[in-house]
Specification:
Elements lengths: L3 E3 L2 E3 L8 E6 L23 H15 L17 E2 L11 E4 L6 E5 L3 E7 L4 E7 L1 H6 L1 H9 L5 E5 L9 E2 L1 H10 L7 E4 L2 E4 L1 H11 L5 E3 L14 H4 L5 E7 L1
Length: 246
Amino acid sequence: MTNKQNKIWIKANWPAPNHIKAGTTIRMGGHSNFPYNELNLGLNVGDNIKDVEKNRLKLKTFLNLPNDPIWLDQTHSKKILPVDNAPIDLTADGSYTAQKNKVCVVTTADCVPILFCDTEENKVAAIHAGWKGICNGIIEDAVKIFSPSKSIIVWIGPAISQRYYQVGEEVYCSFLERSISLENAFKKNGKDWYCSLCKIVKIILNNLDITEIYECGLCTYEMNNLFFSYRRDGKTGRTATMIWIE
């Protein structure tokens, strides 16, 4: 593993400025019991709320976070919230800020967590990108937040790999309706399609002239000792991918 892993945290392996802090959690080192063991950070997955709150406090303490992360109520939408001022409605699948000490966070268990950093304008964002959100345009909307900047770098966190992500014809067709270039992210095995969400993310970003893309490269499904996977386990926890300006 090339990423810097430290107990419960994997630091993003990208050349962001030193005052930009970013990375993702692993599943070990928390308080939750099976099937959410151990460091589940998702509140709406059926876990004991007190255990999740303990896990979130442990994460805040471990990373010495400047404030509580701004936890979203994710719905596979394309909504991305500005969090410079505390939003009342946290129903969204991404957040962004240009202020110091505002911790943007998304939770995942196979979907793609994506972090954005404008290295010149001092702006950051985190989005949760499942196939529905990607099809609906959440990546394009995230890039618009930084437009017309030419200094955007992107980090793709741990997600399910193509080998384990079998999808139906409707998912394949939905992506090809967006762009024929996305066909390169699919492989067919008999009647089944296998999709690389991370490759789709990179193709879309490249089509938007974003080329400085860095990738964690870890599969949530395969690495059951490190990550939660909804596709593998069904009822399970969520890891957190975060970014903030120090």
